[in-house]
TrEMBL record:
KW Oxidoreductase (keyword) present: yes
Chain ranges of the FAD/NAD(P)-binding domain: 5-313
Protein name, as recorded: FAD-dependent oxidoreductase
Domain of life: Bacteria
Record keywords, A-Z: Oxidoreductase
Gene Ontology MF annotations: oxidoreductase activity
InterPro entries (UniProt xref): FAD/NAD-bd_sf, FAD/NAD-binding_dom, Metab_Enz_Cyan_OpOx_G3PDH
Gene3D superfamilies: FAD/NAD(P)-binding domain
Keyword Oxidoreductase: yes
PANTHER family hit by this protein: ANAEROBIC GLYCEROL-3-PHOSPHATE DEHYDROGENASE SUBUNIT B
Matches recorded under SUPFAM superfamilies: FAD/NAD(P)-binding domain
Length: 371
């Protein structure tokens, strides 16, 4: 059995940030494992510039941040296994990894880890309506991967369901890729994302139907028509308000939920929090879960955005390095206090109070886990 000081599951922003901070502190054996063929996670789909402060790389594109993280990881000697899946997480922090998923030479490797950091991210929610399984109907994230990573158009005429930031940003990026976005459809009575993103869509002439939903998709080999209808105050379709839209793609931007397979497999204590996407693992201010030596970061702890994931990853990386004896307590405290100040700042704003209260409900009040 191989031994590693830290095994990190997920090579997105949270996982990479955790690995970099731990390696910077002197941890020698930091391994990051990811299912995809390339590390970086969602960052390499984000060709738009980040908002926020200079501390969070305002004005920098996600893809550039991803490249910076990969360069730092290489600089500090972080080991990254891609095309590999964690298939088991057992007592005493034994991690089972299936390597080389697409190579034809799959190998099962068991690793004894002193610390494990779960940065498994989130998955897209689906919306069910008549015909929702037709080819051409996909998550907005899938469409974004196709155009920004694989350089392939998902189709020509797109109906986007959902007007949060994901729906708005991906709609604009689909137009940049040469797709015709026929309409955005939003069940709520108002747009859910930032006005600056919605304005770009409207200036391009794309209609946004609020208080509407998709009631049916039609087609043979793939979707060819989408029927939408207006909703009443009880969120029910109003007869006679149906509209037919010609489309060969429907993208669903209906929110995300934390990926919790390993969290449940290892029986980490969880709590339900609707603001953050559903069932999420409890953790302390070091991002350590109710199981000693296992940390949870990023969308695993509740869906937010990339900057928050980066900060939570940094926090866990510092805490794990401190626990392993690579950082003095006083030095670690300074680093963690600085990270928490930035985290709290990210959660403030127009809806900050609600998110702060929600996150405080996830922070577990339990004794510091034995190191």
């Amino acid at each position: 059995m191989i031994s590693k000081e830290i095994v990190i599951v997920g090579a997105g922003p949270a996982g990479l940030a955790a690995a970099i901070e731990a390696a910077k502190a002197g941890v020698k054996e930091v391994l990051v494992v990811d299912l995809n063929i390339k590390p970086g996670g969602q960052l390499f789909k984000q060709i738009h510039k980040f908002f926020g402060s200079s501390a969070h790389r305002s004005g920098t594109r996600g893809i550039d941040i991803g490249n910076q993280l990969l360069a730092e990881a290489e600089k500090y000697g972080v080991e990254i296994w891609v095309n590999s899946a964690v298939v088991g997480l057992y007592h005493e922090r034994i991690v089972s990894i299936e390597k080389g998923l697409d190579s034809g030479e799959k190998e099962l490797v068991n690793i004894q880890a002193k610390k494990v950091i779960l940065a498994t991210g989130a998955s897209e929610n689906v919306v069910r309506f008549k015909g929702w399984t037709l080819p051409g109907i996909m998550g907005a994230g899938a469409a974004q991967t196709m155009i920004n990573v694989n350089k392939v158009k998902p189709g020509n005429k797109v109906v986007m369901l959902g007007s949060g930031n994901v729906g708005l940003i991906v709609s604009y990026q689909l137009m940049q890729a040469g797709c015709n976005v026929v309409a955005l459809v939003e069940a709520a009575p108002k747009i859910g994302g930032y006005g600056v993103h919605a304005s770009k869509i409207r200036r391009a002439g794309v209609p946004i139907y609020t208080s509407h939903t998709i009631i049916e998709a039609k087609g043979t080999d793939r979707v060819s028509e989408v029927i939408i209808a207006e909703l009443d105050q009880n969120w029910q379709p109003i007869p006679g308000t149906e509209k037919v839209l010609e489309a060969d793609v429907v993208t669903l931007a209906a929110g995300l939920k934390p990926i919790s397979d390993l969290v449940r497999l290892h029986d980490l204590e969880c709590t339900y929090n609707a603001v953050f996407g559903g069932w999420v693992p409890k953790h302390d201010r070091n991002m350590e879960s109710t199981q000693p030596g296992i940390y949870v970061v990023g969308d695993t702890t509740g869906v937010e955005e990339a900057n928050t994931a980066l900060e939570e990853g940094r926090l866990a990386g510092v805490a794990a390095a401190e626990s392993l004896g690579y950082l003095k307590n006083a030095d670690a405290k300074l680093l963690k206090d600085d990270i928490w100040e930035r985290l709290d700042g990210l959660r403030m704003g127009p809806f900050g109070e609600k998110r702060m209260v929600a996150k405080n409900a996830i922070l577990a009040d339990f004794p510091t886990c034995a190191k």
